[in-house]
Amino acid sequence: MKSAVLLYNPQSGKGKIDIQIEELCTVFRAYGYDIRPQEIDFNRNPFEGNESVSLMVVAGGDGTLNFALNAMKRSGLDIPFGVIPAGTANDFAGALGMSRKPLEAARQIAQGVEEQVDCGCVNGIYFVNVFSFGIFTTTSQRTPDERKHLIGKLAYIIEGVKEVSSMHAVPLEIEADGERFDLRSLMVLIFNGETAGGFPLARRSSIKDGLLDCILLEKRDLLRSTLAMGQYLLGGNPKIVRHLQARRIEIRSTVNEPTDVDGQRGAEFPLHIECIAGGLRVFCPPSAE
Description:
This protein is 24% helix and 36% strand. It has 289 residues and is an alpha+beta fold.
């Protein structure tokens, strides 16, 4: 019989996943898994004592999955993941094609196919979805869990609006796969996935192409920069929103700007960012491309 752990975060999303734990375990047992539920403890490596399991099912948001991924990498293990979206935005789960209904997602994992997908790494910190800094990018860290539970993704927008008055440019020296350039940027988003906070931003991104997608909002006056980002969100291609794809990106700055990794506190400058092609094994729905 295949062994598995259901690692769940009762604080993720609207805080309702814990009432479905036994039902979720029943789904996996019906498909031949000997599965044990385990509530996440962010002060303990969830792989301690679970080094030989066949599958680690993570029920939570991108931050929960990020914690589990980094814990696994630190342990030198290579165990496949299953992802049950139970957070606020669930960006990486969306990229995998997972159902937003936890029980259906469990069935997708249990009868799914194992795929090797990319993950990102910045200064030794792994990420599944997006690494970022600049305006709006640390919003998830500051948005209270209670507000996320109550109003979901709208909580990110409310918190992000507060940042407009403190907009400032970050002077950057960037090298992407050998191409070097300088830029004063209001925001930098480096995607492995496709969305951030549920909003589609990385239009060409794929978790299987061995590349990271980098979006940079160049500093102009407040109105022009804001309009450009709005135009980009609506499908346009304004010149001051620069897009590039690369395997490795080096970023230096005279400012040690706070950064964010999958909604959690990120790395400090200078930044060495790379795509780890096929660096994560994950069970996807049978029909996933």
